[in-house]
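Work through this:
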Amino acid sequence: MTAQPLTDAVVPHAMPDRPARAERPLIMPGVVPHADGTCDVRVWAPHAQRLDLVISGAPPRPLNRGERGWWGLQVHDVVTGDRYHFSVDGGEPRPDPASRSQPEGVHAASAVVALDGFAWTDRVWRGLPLADYVLYELHLGTFSDAGTCDAAIAHLDDLVELGVTAVEIMPVAQCPGGRNWGYDGVYPFAVQDSLGGPAAFQRLVDACHARGLAVVLDVVYNHFGPEGNYLGTFMPITSDRYRTPWGSAVNLDGPHSDGVRDFLIANARQWLVGFHVDALRLDAVHAMMDAGARHFLAELAAHVATWSQETGRTLHLFAESDLNASRLVRAPAVGGYGLDAQWTDDFHHALHALLTGEKHAYYADYGEVAHLRDAYAAGHVYGGRWCDGRSLTHGDDASDLPTERFVVFSQNHDQIGNRQHGERLAALTDLEGLKCAAGAVLLSPYLPLLFMGEEWGERTPFQYFVDHGDPALVAAVRAGRQREFGALGSGGDLPDPFAAATWRGSRLDRAAAQAEPGRTLRAFYRECLRLRRDLPALQPGPRASVAVDQPHPATIAVARHAPGCRTWLLLNPTAETVTGLTIPPGRWQIALDSSAGRWLGRDGVRENPPAPGEGLTRLGRSALLLVELETAP
């Protein structure tokens, strides 16, 4: 669908479950050229007394002051590619806080870009229902050898063949240098120049839609990076009322916070409407401090619902949060924020601790099979119960929520990259453990997320890397990493986050997917996703369709049903061989056995499962899926 013009004010409609009320107009900031040769210039700078547009080779042009701190101007001689700055009160010219392109980096001039000139081919694309999401998280800079948007397109067909339905892209906002995870962005409207810039990102989104892949973009609204951050020159973007791990919090509830909130909401609109992105993954929402009457997340969700109606596309919001707070995904009518789904770290921690035996840091609160059982039964392990590591009662009860409200994973960029050496799960457990993890995630009742390369057991690390231009900042990053891991009692040297070799060493080794055991592991992932797609009982749905049991201290059984179909998943995430297990009554056949020779397993069960009442033996770190005979695929 062709993007709607982003230069006009947009007034959200009232949500169906709330009374109509006046909304402040949403103004799209930045420099936006039009086909008629005009160019709209809009900047929010509430404390400025004077604001000038400074175009290379031309005298400064004063902007006109409007209401609520907005400044504007329409010009007729600015064209795509022109470089420009803004000067506040006659001060040093600075890049546009809403720049769409920084081709020479974070300290250089902004470039005028015509985003509406792209020839989209996805007019029939309408997005995906939430329950259909199978997410694949990737970092564009390490997903291919070239590390660009265009180079990523060559690998999309592999994801479709695997069974993935949505690509989740780590942040693309402009950061300093050419190597970064993306969480040091300082120009939230600009696409990182080293990834190819805005046009390349449009091509990537269009290519995904052509293959039936939804696109989820990771956005960071809880902080901005330290280098090249001139936002404070223009606006009161932060507040000293709260502190976060990155410093002062983003100003979501203090004086002038309406403008800050609108700046972020306009950014979300650019990605979802202007770039045709299907969903946003909101980074660390627990660090978005807002004590106002209407939380920023609820306001954003209301806007996104309106844009979905406006565009005719299904749009979603996913939250990363360590709060275990069900209000994030509950409906506004019952006091929730109205987001669509949230990441569930509890599931990962419970599974990881069992497969690896790790008990350091936050894994100390996990490690029992009952923890994983609870994650299957209720979404969270800590859903209103005491947590030793936090020394408080953590989370609330989410056991009534539909299962598609939770995103689960055995690996992601944080859980790998924030380890001392960036080790993946393949370096911490054996092939049987990897298959057990895949079965646990992909056959769960939740929305599964894979991290790039895990499907073939990628062993190259994913390490933390930056490319700051300030030597003092680089030294501070190095020292901070040393302090962090020193406090955890970790020994040995850390990879240098500034070294280009750290970034190069984090790129995928695609040759491993063509050799054993990578080839077979990838086939196992593909079969899990086929079963998930083909068996109605494996679709996300009401919690009442899922029954979780612990038939032995070392195992978890997950029984699910849908009209005409029943499944029974038995997981043994421990190293213990379990004997004497019984299966529930029914006419079953084996749909998947991770221990089978087909999957390079050690000793699978018989071709047909034991009859109900007969003993069943399961080796350690295994997954077995049974399907009722008459409905098996």
